[in-house]
Amino acid sequence: MPRNKISDNIEGIVKYILTKNYSYYVIQQELARMNLNVSKSTISRIANKVGKQRQLCLLNSEKPKFHRRRHIATPSIVRRITSYINQENPPTVSLMAARCHISVGTTFRTIRDIIDARCRKKTPVHRLYPAIVEKRRSRAWRMYRRLSNEKYKNYLTTDEAWFYLDASRGIRDIYYVRSNQLPAEIKKIEKNDLHPVAVMVWAGASSHGKTQVYFIEHGTTITSKYYIEHIIEPLIEYDISRLFPGDMQKKMVLHQDSAPGHVAKYTISYMKEHNINVIIPLEWLPKSPDAAPMDYSIWGIMKEREHFYPSIAAVAAATSTTTTSTTSSATSTTITATATTLEGGQRFVRNLQVEDRIWTLSHDDKYFIEDKIIAMLHSEPKTTIYFYTFITIQGHSVSLSGSHNIVVIAKRETKSQFIRASN
User: Fold this and answer.
1) In this predicted model, what pLDDT tens digit does every residue of 121-132 receive, in sequence order?
2) Which segment of the chain is annotated as a signal peptide (predicted)?
3) In this structure, are residues 407 and 385 in contact, taking their beta carbons and an 8 Å threshold?
4) pTM
5) Which residue, 10, 34, 165, 338, has most beta carbons within 10 Å?
6) Burial of 316 by CB count in 10 Å (0-12 exposed, 13-18 middle, 19+ buried)?
């Protein structure tokens, strides 16, 4: 559609005001006082002498020619950009464009089309110092022998973690302002980085279930005496006897980190007196996510879910619920699932046991977990479904159906077996 022609009267007035070196906004206000509604783009076209081309009807037949030199990726520029992207910490695209005196778009095209490179994010990993590498090299095989042949079921892995409440305290980091109004005040989120509100939590998990969640008193130093009186003694009285009943308690091994209160002589001697097998500091494997699921998995899930609780009391009330849905075991009322899988072209029905990665969850998490299972199956369709089996508590069932395998929750079975099912 052709643009409206700029009248000679408006063009003359705008050219006159332009001689006073006013900004486009001021010119627009001056024209508004004359009851002339002129946009900034029209003022810009008059200033760039596009009005003459419009009057000559050149814009109706062909586009105006702007003589702007397009940036060209010369061989020297390509070499410079190649040297930039080969660095360990390459600069940003904007900085590379500024250094080469070219546009950001030309820089993108040079990297993508000429150099044929793609930007990738670095994978965050834990830094392994030489001492840690040596410890892992000398201790890994012994730890593997201790966990192999399903002996990991005898282990109770424990850890403590800090929960900081200075991030948001339940306050959202956004607010809305209407486009035609000015905000009454600039809203802020105050953070206390020097003395943040925090609470330390201690917990443990095993293939037989989870321990209670123990909250450390504020300002307390976890010495060997405090560790025994407030954590180990309640652990022996309430948790170990429940998770490892009868003769299973003799095989139970407590897996903890090398904190000073954990490896003190008084703590080790107390464990020996009560016949509790403990991984000694010389056998503990540092920086090992596979051997310490509490440190590298469960704590991360709990902190993500409890990020928006406003107080320590709210965290304490929610932590017990969260651990129920994150520990990879069933509760005291153990139940299992029956999963229909396709393996080797044959259809099987497998009665799963507690050790087959069955997770409990609350009613509030039901639909979230179902969506997560479906997303996992779409991303990894070849994986058998019983690796992603989730169940609800109190006997409620979850059924997933579709183009993938079907999961049905059933009562606990005494044996784990494969049963050939009819197609």
Assistant:
1) 887 777 788 888
2) none
3) yes
4) 0.46
5) 165
6) middle
